[in-house]
Amino acid sequence: MSKNTNKRIPIKWVRDRAKSAYEKKDHCYICNTDQDLELHHTHSLTLLLERWIETTGRDFSTDEAVLENRDEFIDNHHDEIYRDVYTLCLKHHQALHAVYGKAPPLSSAQKQGHWLETQKAKATLNPGEKPKVLGGSFSEFY
After folding, report:
1. I want to staple 109 with a disulfide (CB 3.0 to 4.6 A). Which of 21, 42, 47, 103 is the partner?
2. pTM of the entire predicted model
3. pLDDT, tens digit, 9 for 90 and up, residues 2-22
């Protein structure tokens, strides 16, 4: 058994497995640009995984345990991982994290969805308007 010495490895392996099924759009959900596109999960995968491990008691302490349990985690959180995802341009992704923080709490997912819809409506009414960022740089979030 290989002891997992890097705390980030479990979430990295989960993301790597899930990535192949992501449906990244060819434009920003809010402004329709096709430049600098990224995926945004309204449910943080890291927080979802931490909660799932805590509630199920699953072992993620070894490489083998991560590989053994990650598919079940993905299956149990299919909607959060694949449905509650938005393709955003860098500017709108940055603006969202400026409002909700680097790792938005799971309880904010519905509010994030509302924020996205509001921004999309504003962009439709005012095409070309740049998103307002409340401060800080995007690199602070990653």
Report:
1. 42
2. 0.77
3. 555 555 588 888 888 888 888
